[in-house]
């Protein structure tokens, strides 16, 4: 059974958005945060869909429950709550929301930085990346966020895996097709009520 919330994080360019969109196909996931103002397409890829939390964005990274649930227009279901900046608040999230799950996506800094540029870089119009200021600032934040993700996973003895259909079935109890299986992208999850 899915929790009410999955706090979902990965650095810019980690392709975490496509993983989140794959998980949004699961039965019981609430996608009422999707609307035409909250999407970005790039080339043949799906880009971004739904609410993103972050500095200077439509929704800041406040951990108040009403704020967290604010983007969803319909009640119930599991909300996949996405933010790059959750990476810097993982311990607090695990304490404030002990019944929620935390999903981490890891991709090396250089690969993530390169993909973020290919996807549009600072020309991406949703979500807003202006808080990162410039290319050096973006790379520094990618490095800092990835470091925080790895430290949290290590502290909680989490196991990294490739994002595959089998991994989804093992962790979510449902079968869905995972189309992409990039060799340099890893995922892990910390389930609630630990």
SSE topology:
Blueprint (H helix, E strand, L loop, with lengths): L4 E5 L6 H8 L15 E4 L2 E5 L15 H5 L9 E4 L7 H7 L4 E6 L2 H10 L16 H21 L9 H8 L13 E5 L4
Parallel strand pairs: 1-4, 1-5
Antiparallel strand pairs: 2-3, 5-6
Helix pairs in contact: 4-5
Explain the overall architecture.
This protein has about 190 residues and is an alpha/beta fold. It has one domain. It contains 6 helices and 6 strands. The protein has helices spanning about 15-25, 65-70, 90-95, 110-120, 135-155, 165-170, and strands at about 5-10, 40, 45-50, 80, 100-105, 185-190. The strands form 2 sheets. It has a 4-stranded mixed β-sheet, sandwiched between helices. The longest helix is centred in the last third of the chain and has 21 residues, at about 135-155. The chain is globular, with a radius of gyration of 15 Å. It starts with a strand and ends with a strand.
Task: Tag the structure with descriptive keywords.
194 residues, alpha/beta, two-stranded antiparallel sheet
């Amino acid at each position: 059974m899915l929790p009410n919330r999955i706090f979902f994080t990965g650095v810019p360019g980690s392709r975490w958005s496509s993983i989140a969109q794959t998980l949004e196909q699961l039965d019981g996931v609430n996608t009422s945060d999707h609307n035409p103002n909250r999407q970005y397409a790039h080339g043949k890829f799906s880009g971004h869909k739904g609410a993103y939390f972050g500095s200077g964005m439509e929704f800041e990274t406040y951990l108040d429950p009403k704020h967290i649930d604010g983007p969803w227009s319909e009640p119930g279901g599991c909300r996949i709550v996405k933010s790059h900046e959750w990476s810097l608040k993982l311990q607090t999230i695990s304490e404030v929301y002990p019944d929620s799950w935390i999903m981490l996506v890891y991709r090396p800094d250089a690969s993530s930085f390169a993909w973020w540029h290919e996807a549009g870089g600072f020309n991406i119009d949703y979500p807003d990346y202006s808080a990162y200021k410039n290319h050096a600032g973006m790379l520094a934040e990618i490095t800092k966020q990835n470091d925080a993700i790895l430290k949290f996973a290590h502290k909680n003895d989490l196991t990294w895996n490739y994002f595959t259909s089998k991994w989804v079935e093992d962790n979510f109890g449902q079968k869905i097709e995972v189309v992409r299986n990039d060799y340099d992208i890893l995922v892990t999850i910390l389930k609630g009520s630990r």
